[in-house]
Amino acid sequence: MADSVELIEALDRRVKRRDERREFFRHALSVGTLAAGGVAAMGFSTAARAQTAAPSDSDILNLALNLEYLEAQFYVYAVRGEGLPAAQLTGTGRQGAVTGGRKANLTDRTVIQYAREIAEDEVAHVAALRSALGNAAVAQPAINISGAADGPFTAAALAAGIDLSASGGVFDPYANDDNFLLGAYIFEDVGVTAYQGAAPLISNVDIVDAAAGILAAEAFHAGIIRSALYARGVATPVLRTNADRISDARDLLDGNRASAAGSLPTIVADDDQGISPMTVNGQVQANIVPTDSTGRTFSRTSEQVHNIVYLTRNQATSGGFFPNGTNNPNAALTRSGAN
């Protein structure tokens, strides 16, 4: 009983923090700061607008394309044992290779079919974004999706506090079904929050429509991965625990504001929820969708997304899954924040 009361109190505190955050934005909008807030939300402060141009639609789409390269390569390698075709990797900026991808040792028929569907969608997303960008599309940057001891998946697992003693200190997302789902979980929620953060900044209505369609697909993917982990966690509770730890690590990495002076606060602690069931008003419920008290999910800025994929709380221009950084003609959209 005491545990349930403590959990309910913790949830109440989380709701209070989110209510305070929403009130901040309501006030900001009421005094006409939407334009300034939109610029700040991508890591720009109002004070810096004179020196730094707001991101263009193509800048924002190229930010999304970098993430789609990463997701597509992970899933395609896991399903097929090979990456995207060479014709889908060219563009402006420095083109890089993929390190460490391989076919996953998947045995659960349901997980295999999930992986196949998501892989096909991610390949289509890369093609769609490249088509929309035309000659402005950036090349695939160097991507590291290695499951080795010195790879980013192991680094992410260690940062999350996942016990790797049984695997010799290595987290290999291609080793089995459970590891694959946890590896996918690292990416999926980030992709959804990245699209949600970027979509309001796009000015072209047709591009907004396309981005919204991809956002919806990414949200379905995240729901698939979260649901699979939740269900498999009934028999193997450590799966839920490890997913929760990954969520906590992402919260620590992305901090609570963009690094530029004067930026609006965007993320509060515990927005990035795990998947363990919650007790609310004495009733146990699932937590597949990480929503606030209004039933809405949250967004991340470009900097916060880079904090996670670079696996750093510091301001940086490379690291983690992108050893040489992401590609974008707008350099502000290639850096992580100082958290």
TrEMBL record:
SUPFAM superfamilies: Ferritin-like. Keywords: Membrane, Transmembrane, Transmembrane helix. It holds the Pfam family Ferritin_2. Residues 320-339 are annotated as: Disordered. Residues 320-330 have a biased composition (Low complexity). The chain crosses the membrane at residues 24-44. This is Ferritin-like domain-containing protein. It comes from Sphingomonas hominis.
